[in-house]
Specification:
Blueprint lengths: L1 H15 L4 E6 L8 E10 L2 E9 L8 E8 L2 E2 L3 E4 L10 E9 L5 E8 L6 E7 L10 E2 L13 E2 L5 E7 L5 E7 L7 E6 L7 E8 L5 E7 L3 E7 L10 E6 L6 E4 L5 E5 L16 E6 L5 E8 L6 E8 L5 E7 L3 E7 L7 E2 L24
Antiparallel strand pairs: 1-25, 2-3, 3-4, 4-5, 4-6, 7-8, 8-9, 9-10, 11-12, 12-13, 13-14, 15-16, 16-17, 17-18, 19-20, 20-21, 21-22, 22-26, 23-24, 24-25
Length: 368
């Protein structure tokens, strides 16, 4: 009875924070593997494409990259498009796929292969038909890792900026620039030394004045930012934002109306811990990248593991988000950004509305 009561209460509370939600669905109900994670989404001329990694468990050698397409309103059965087989006796895990549709160009699928994030290498496959078929696997140059979790962004000057980073000898972000639609890359940054402030997996926002803001996952209990005023060539020192971080992935998108939309776990880890539970999963909006407004709570349960969002805005103006649901399935949510009800986040605290109180999370935080 207590569990039933909690479930009903949580559902009622979620309705308070779900104005503007159009679609809430799983991409698949069953899969040939027990765990999945790190979803990504892109819009092509043929429709939406999503990808993720799946296998027995993250970093196990059988983890592969899977791709599904939205066709006639339904997601297709996922196909295995990449594995980490090196030879007859050696196989590594695949990690963190990133889909990126070059404007008026090809669809790129970036991913990593290796025994760990400190030792992985970047690879890519290319599709010319919206994810129906793919080129053979290509290794990126040794100095280029590719987007480490979040999508590249085309800048006003036509260059493409890719958010990347390394985890060998610290957690340090950098960026990769392409002037030829993802054919070749040069490295910019890094921002920070990766030791005092441990930053990972930046997401890129472009503001009306042309300035670029990168928001980062960290091991420092808060989302950090760095800014570029020259199209990503140089970057400001890392600085703490008002938003908390639980050492889990985030993603953002610059909306067509100029606002920034961010998807993240609004969680401050307990005590002095760097890691926190991956629940709830939240959406916030900002006009300037500084003052943020609470917009949505996508998930809110003490079970945890609602994480690693990927977000885009499609040509019809709707916002699409995919994310990990308890490491068991991939969720797809569609939002109408014009119907969001906003309330300012003050002092890093998610605002209370109509008596809403977030559930107490008591589960472990392993595999964060």
């Amino acid at each position: 009875m207590m569990c039933l009561s909690f479930g009903l209460t949580t559902k009622a509370q979620l309705k308070i924070w779900q104005h503007g939600m159009v679609t809430d669905e799983f991409i698949f109900e069953k899969a040939p593997y027990p765990e999945c994670h790190a979803a990504t989404i892109a819009e092509t001329k043929q429709g939406l494409v999503a990808a993720w990694f799946g296998g027995t468990k993250e970093r196990n050698p059988d983890v592969c990259i899977w791709v599904s397409r939205l066709v006639n309103g339904k997601w297709t059965e996922a196909i295995n498009v990449a594995n980490g087989i090196q030879n007859d006796t050696l196989r590594y895990a695949c990690w963190n796929p990133v889909l990126y549709q070059v404007p008026n160009g090809d669809l790129f699928l970036y991913y990593k292969i290796g025994p760990s994030p400190a030792k992985w290498k970047g690879f890519q496959r290319i599709s010319k038909d919206g994810g129906i078929s793919w080129s053979t696997q290509e290794a990126l140059p040794d100095s280029i890792l590719g987007p480490v979790k979040n999508k590249p962004v085309m800048l006003g000057n036509g260059n493409i900026l890719s958010p990347s980073g390394t985890e060998n000898g610290g957690a340090k972000i950098h960026f990769e620039l392409s002037k030829d639609k993802c054919q070749t890359w040069t490295i910019t940054g890094p921002a920070g030394d990766g030791k005092t402030i441990k930053t990972l997996q930046p997401t890129i926002l472009v503001h009306r004045d042309g300035s670029i803001q990168a928001l980062c996952r960290t091991q420092n209990r808060a989302i950090y930012e760095t800014w570029s005023k020259n199209n990503g060539v140089t970057w400001s020192p890392l600085a703490q934002t008002s938003l908390p971080n639980n050492n889990s992935g985030i993603d953002g998108v610059t909306l067509k109306d100029g606002r920034s939309l961010l998807v993240y776990n609004h969680v401050l880890p307990p005590g002095k811990l760097a890691k926190g539970a991956r629940t709830p999963l939240n959406v916030a909006i900002s006009k300037d990248g500084k003052t943020w407004y609470a917009a949505l709570i996508l998930e809110d349960s003490p079970i945890s593991q609602y994480s690693y969002p990927s977000v885009i805005q499609t040509k019809d103006g709707l916002v699409h988000i995919v994310y990990t649901w308890r490491r068991q399935r991939i969720k797809h949510v569609v939002i109408d950004p014009n119907k969001l009800v906003l309330k300012e986040i003050k002092d890093g605290v998610w605002p209370k509305v109509d008596g809403y109180t977030a559930p107490v999370v008591t589960g472990d935080t392993k595999d964060l």
